[in-house]
Amino acid sequence: MLGNTLTLPLSTGNVVCIKVNQDNYSSEYLFKDATHQVRCRIRHTKTNATATRPVYDRHNFEVVETVFTAGAVAEYERKFYFVLEQLPGDVSVVNADGVADLMIASTDAFLVSLMNWES
Q1: Where in the chain is the domain with CATH 2.40.160.220?
Q2: Model pTM?
Q3: Which of 10, 21, 55, 85 qualifies as a cystine partner to 28, CB 3.0-4.6 A?
Q4: How is the beta sheet containing 76-86 ordered, strand by strand?
């Protein structure tokens, strides 16, 4: 089980979010100061089985940063999330680890390329 705090090591400094809600298979963490807030949501669900596809476990982690109004700059949000979807009992994290390593090893160049509509 995750703890009552979640520390995001952002390039602008660590943000420590405190758990503000937990129900069923989800949790919500929050950090807030005078300039912005960071909300992290963790959700676990199952997909629906079909005639050709079994039930999969679905794990979602989402970060939403709200930057508050400052002078002439209106409030805005930044969102990042990822989803892991695998068969129940499949504990491999090799794909998620590889993508995370790609983002880090490229010194964020991969992410900048995505934001520049490269594919």
Answers
A1: 5-88
A2: 0.91
A3: 21
A4: 5-10, 13-23, 26-32, 36-46, 57-67, 76-86
